[in-house]
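Workshop exercise sheet. Pairs work together: one partner reads the sequence aloud, the other fills in the structure field after running the prediction. Swap roles for the next sheet.
Pair: D.N. / O.F.
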Amino acid sequence: MGEPNRGTSNKGASNRDSSNQSASDRGPRGDGLHWLRLAVWAALALLVLLPLGVILFRGAQPANADVLTDPDVLAAAWNSVSSAAGSAALATAFGALLAVVLDRTDLPGRTVLRWIFLLPFLIPPFIGAMSWMALLSPAGTVNQTLMALTGSTGPVLDIYGGGGVVFLLAVHSYPLAYLVISAALRRVPGSLEEAARISGAGGLRTFCQVTLPLVRPAVVAAFVLTLVANLSDFGIPALIGLPERYTTLTTLVYRYLASGTVTNPLPAVAAIGVVLLVLGLAAVLMQRRLPGGSELGGSGAAALPLQLGSARWVVAGLLWCTAAVVCVLPLLALTEQALLPAPGVPLTWENLTLANIARALTSGGALTGIANSVLLALGAAVACGVLGLAVGALLTRTKHRSNTALDVTAMLPQALPGLVLAVAWLLIAPALGIFNTPWVILGAYVMAFLALVVQSVRAPLESVPVSLDEAARISGAGPLRALGDVALRLSVPAAVSGAVVVALTAVRELTISILLVAPGSQTLGVVIFNLQQAGDYNSASALALLVTIVGVAGLSATAALGARRTARTRFQKGK
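Structure field:
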């Protein structure tokens, strides 16, 4: 009797193991999952592996060694690294300060302040640069007022040059540092701080000796992320640095491609792209080698806020003033320039006009740019939504030896400078027959923004109970059918949210578009940049203002819906 029972038991265990891996690649060809995995790998090979492989091959040729020792390239490389590192340090320090004050103290008005300080994160950096140019232009209100007060004959404040580049890069990257550090602060177990309090430590000592050491990895991660992002920015160095001959690698590549000063720019561009690729990968590897934050479990009692006492109103006043100067005044200056007929015209009710907005929206170039940007953004959103959902499903709902490589391949472009991605597609476009067409921009968009959707669907896919897959399999569904009917269907809202973020990001993108643009395929960001470069500041400001309003509204609504969906999921789990 014992032997049959053991056989039955083993058979039952085998069935349980089979159901627990209901969406794994088992059986002949995985019952459809095998072909899904092959299709995903084929898409990633075309969109990620091929461009990066070509840029590594072309840029690492021995003949390009002379390019890397060119004085202009060396100077641009130094400017890129120094401005990116300096701005990342400033952004991380300010983001950490905001995270502590806004999330861990009893400061009044924290919710409104948090939204205001996140405004630069919702605005493209090149539009932010235009806002500061409008604010601190020689004919602007600020400089005119300071000149009248000081008796100076020239502008008192000047945003142009290396210092302005570092400052504006920091302004537009500190929200990213804040979000990373703030998330880590929320995950610090309150029980640890409570134990320190019970042991007699005060609030400040507990925070310094318990909380801060736990979030140190997040601070390092914030620094690396902002460093990589600032290393690849084009708009701010182009608008703020070039007028003072401050050249970075991104603006140098643009000059090589646009000015015709180099007979065959592709080898030089590829070599510079490899340099940026190496710098970006070195930053990511440096972050991974540092101690992780696995000790942050997020369980236990909620952390007690730091009591600011009588200083809370002083701190609140300082933060409100800072938010007004850094986040609000530049946008008001951009609005002023968009509503005035010409630069230098006094700001009066009689001079306000909507003619700039009407002219900008009805011009042929603007209409073409808007149409191209909308089509490319929608195409990238759909492609990233479908491919990102498939990648997320394979990573979270299946067990396969290639999952790690699949994860790295899908997420790697997010850690690379946008210039590298643009140069990679510039190199492979002729071979694919899409050179000087919108398709090359679309391919670069999908490569750059795929990780946004993968990140959006991970948590919803992981939260789907395995029992639902088991029920589908018991009802006769194959692994692919069970995956599609259960996990994928429940995660479609998250994929749609990620796709919306991709669309809103792509429609305002500049760094990739400016290098891949062709006649008739200019995007909205390129149109605004060209208007600014041509001296039509009022029309450029009008278009930039509209893009800012749409972007802030769209991203805010998407974030609110995502937060509401997360709260509803947690409530349902609690029940």
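Discussion prompt: Residues 1-23, 26-30 have pLDDT under 50 and may be disordered. What would you look at next?
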